[in-house]
Write a structure and sequence with these properties.
five-stranded mixed sheet; 23 helices; heme; binds protoporphyrin IX containing FE; monooxygenase; monooxygenase activity
Length: about 650
């Protein structure tokens, strides 16, 4: 009798070798056999062979032949064990590695056609069953949902729900609010029901119950696939641990140290625009793309001590920037994002070679490789500067994080592992640069269409006698503060966010909901799995909270804001712009000082005039709103006339 361990070793080897050989010889045969014998049976074939033949192996000097069970298209496996020892109780471990020979039968075209049908039909049938199963699950959920009485727009398609029309028209939710009120239901991809609400009691309830209202597991999984295990991809204890580790890096003392980088990069951008405007005394500049280059350089240097050199017009293409751009800014980014969202909801789509899959994979590999290099270098520098009181020359967020993470005072259970540290790099990149450049673009748009506010701001900025102010000097400028607040209120770059209830709940409402049948509800039953759409900009500009002129840009409103705004659960300035609760924006102080540094430098140096004052619209991609000239298409950005400001005139 052969002992069990030896049989298992042989079985494992047999499975490995058999698979490799089959793959290298004839993929079609393998696929067909997978269908014919079924995947499970096929994978268990070596085990069966081992069980049937190896256990009862009759010791012999001659080759041992085993028939391939269940696969008519492979005639035989020849299992050669020339040195198989004889004797009734031999040990398989003593055998040399056997050889498998595979003989394949020749097929007529008719047989081949039949085989292809035999492969394709069951695949199609399996997909259809999968689709019907999930569709009926979703339909059943929608039909039996305790929220089915809540009104809302019709879904134009089962597969896309209202997803596509919302992407096509960024103002659609506003129209729906006018039609159905602040609380309504719409349908997302695959007709998944999503509750939209601007009710502040409901929003407060959501952010104060993070154990119930979380990022959807499908979103977390999709984020992890794309960005790794950074803070954007985790919930619960993992999130609390990562957040604790990151918090010190984003505090005011750290941002104070980084202000020099914000100013240095703002000055570099100012000089580029000054050179462009010098020739004709003014230039038409598409400011959004330039601001993005500036914030990209800042996030690289300030967040992980990496030089993108995006403002150096002559510099070579940057590999990491190319990888990030491919992921988030390619012309097809929305399609890729839509497909990833669909994969999150229907995991079977991960087997399909969908749009951008290869590109995302390649970009992610580059991102992780360079991310690991950045982390290794930072750790080496921190170790080399051990004993120094401060961080030495490395003031970036990652170095601060690593220094704290390496400290002996941190219990092992609280430490971030390598993958988590590397995962913060794309998280900083994704969350921290375009948001800031869009906020500054919208500020320049607002100031170019409000010349009085622009003049007033410039007057205040020119009271500072240096081009290199500190963070405290920037924060002492009161009108600058109100301009930034007003921009972040009216033009919050992140338009909305989303949460999913992970258990049944009752959501209280400040204003009773009157359903289409006229019944009033002072709370809503939320079933487990319900998604909730939180419209950040809509709450920031709600007339019932801010007054009739809520959608106008008027910095002076901050001299006295209505009492009702105190009900907004924001982390900053009673605005939802940086969200609230445990997932509030960790980088909000960083971002505000960077925006102030940019406005300080640019408004002192230039006058900005609108090119297409009434034609600027918002284009929403991946929750972010970008400005665009309606007549010139969604990628036109924000063109402005930039004139050097001459104080003597
Ligand atoms: C105008 C600029 C910015 C805006 C409007 C903004 C907005 C937001 C919002 C709304 C969230 C919450 C998203 C959610 O949970 O659904 C968030 C989270 C986050 N933001 Fe920002 N952000 C900005 C700048 C930054 C910067 C500069 C950084 C980093 C340098 C940053 C890093 C993060 C991170 C890491 C999170 C995730 C926090 C967590 O889940 O605990 N953000 N941001």
């Amino acid at each position: 009798m052969i002992n069990t361990r030896a049989a298992l070793r042989l079985t494992a080897w047999f499975r490995r070798n058999l698979r490799t050989k089959l793959q290298s010889r004839d993929v079609y045969t393998v696929i067909h056999c997978q269908y014919k014998a079924s995947l499970l049976a096929w994978l268990s074939l070596p085990i069966r062979l081992a069980q049937e033949h190896v256990y009862n192996l009759v010791p012999t000097e001659s080759p041992y032949e085993a028939a391939a069970v269940g696969c008519p298209y492979i005639s035989s496996f020849t299992f050669l064990s020339p040195q198989c020892p004889s004797g009734p109780r031999h040990d398989v471990r003593a055998m040399s590695v056997p050889e498998i020979k595979l003989e394949r039968r020749a097929y007529s075209p008719r047989q081949t056609g039949t085989m292809i049908l035999e492969v394709l039909l069951p695949i199609a049938a399996t997909l259809l069953c999968y689709f019907i199963f999930h569709a009926s699950q979703i339909l059943y959920r929608n039909l039996t949902s305790p929220l089915r009485f809540v009104g809302g727009p019709k879904s134009p398609s089962f597969l896309l729900g209202n997803f596509k029309e919302m992407g096509d028209d960024p103002y659609l939710t506003e129209k729906w609010r006018a039609q159905f009120g602040g609380t309504f239901r719409f349908h997302n991809l695959f007709s998944m029901s999503e509750l939209h609400t601007t009710d502040l009691k409901a929003i407060n309830h959501i952010v104060s119950k993070p154990s119930i209202y979380q990022k959807a597991p499908s979103l977390l999984a999709a984020t992890e696939i794309m960005l790794g295990r950074g803070i954007l991809a985790v919930e619960n204890e993992n999130h609390r641990r990562q957040r604790r580790a990151l918090n010190p890096a984003f505090g005011l003392p750290q941002v104070r140290l980084l202000t020099g980088i914000f100013i240095e990069k703002s000055v570099q951008l100012r000089d580029i625009w000054a050179a462009q405007a010098a020739q004709d005394g003014a230039a038409r500049i598409e400011v959004t793309s330039w601001l993005r280059r500036m914030t990209l350089d800042v996030i690289g240097q300030a967040a992980f001590n990496y030089h993108f050199n995006a403002l150096d017009t002559g510099s070579k293409p940057n590999e990491l920037n190319d990888a990030f751009t491919a992921l988030f800014h390619s012309p097809h980014a929305t399609r890729y994002a839509g497909f990833r969202a669909a994969q999150g909801i229907a995991p079977i789509l991960k087997l399909v070679p969908g749009p951008g899959k290869k590109l995302v994979h390649a970009a992610r590999q580059t991102m992780l490789r360079i991310g690991q290099q950045i982390v290794n270098r930072s750790i080496a520098e921190i170790k080399a500067s051990e004993g120094e009181k401060d961080l030495g020359k490395n003031r970036d967020l990652l170095s601060t994080l690593l220094k704290a993470n390496l400290s002996a005072s941190i219990p092992d259970s609280q430490r971030l592992d390598d993958a988590e540290v590397v995962g913060q790099i794309p998280a900083f990149f994704l969350a921290g640069h375009e948001t800031t450049s869009l906020a500054t673009s919208w500020a320049l748009h607002a100031l170019s269409t409000n010349p009085a506010a622009q003049r007033k701001l410039r007057e205040e900025l020119l009271t500072i006698s240096t081009d290199n102010p500190t963070m405290d000097e920037l924060n002492s400028l009161l009108y600058l503060e109100t301009v930034v607040r007003e921009t972040m209120r009216v033009h919050a770059p992140v338009v909305n966010t989303e949460r999913m209830a992970v258990e049944d709940d009752i959501m209280p409402l400040a204003k009773p909901y009157v359903d289409p049948q006229g019944n009033s509800h002072d709370s809503l039953p939320i079933p487990k799995g319900q998604r909730i759409h939180i419209p950040i900009v809509a709450i920031n500009t709600d007339k019932e909270i801010w007054g009739e002129d809520a959608s106008e840009f008027r910095p002076e409103r901050w001299e006295k804001v209505p009492d009702s705004v105190s009900a907004i659960p924001g982390v900053w300035a009673n605005l939802l712009t940086f969200f609230a609760g445990p997932h509030n924006c960790i980088g909000f102080r960083f971002s505000l000082v960077e925006i102030k540094a940019l406005l300080f430098t640019l408004i002192r140096a230039f006058e900005f005039e609108a090119v297409a004052k009434d034609d600027i619209v918002r284009v929403t991609v991946n929750f972010l709103q970008r400005p665009a000239v309606q007549a010139e298409g969604p990628c036109s950005g924000l063109p402005l006339i930039v004139k050097p400001y001459n104080a003597q005139l």
